[in-house]
Design goal:
about 140 residues; mainly alpha; 2 domains; about 80% helix
Amino acid sequence: MNSQEDIDFVIREIAHYRKHDDIIRALCERSGYQWAEAASVVQRIEQEYHAQIQIRRRPFRTFLGIVMIASGLAVCAHSIYSLVAGELIPLTLALPLLDLELSNGGQLVELFIGFPLTLGGIATLGLAFQAGKKSASSA
């Protein structure tokens, strides 16, 4: 049987997106497991404590979802405004990484970038909050 300290360590490391080999190596050094034994412990803990791992990942996913939604809406708003106003406004003022000044075709490209980006952000937020619901209902 694993100690609670080992379980907490593995949950924390998996939640921080550490590589499995690094977690296994650290578990071998910490608790004196053989590699195969530590690998099975990590796999078992990952399966048994899946809900807890997802909840620990929730703040990162929430932040990522909000950033994606805000970026997608900014790109869509810029594109729609440029199409309606008939003016080409440099997107580099709002988002320096997306320099898409390609006349009206560029605004359409921006829409095709901004819309999926917004949807991806909504999906990411949904995953973050779904993890909380699943663990609350299973408790």
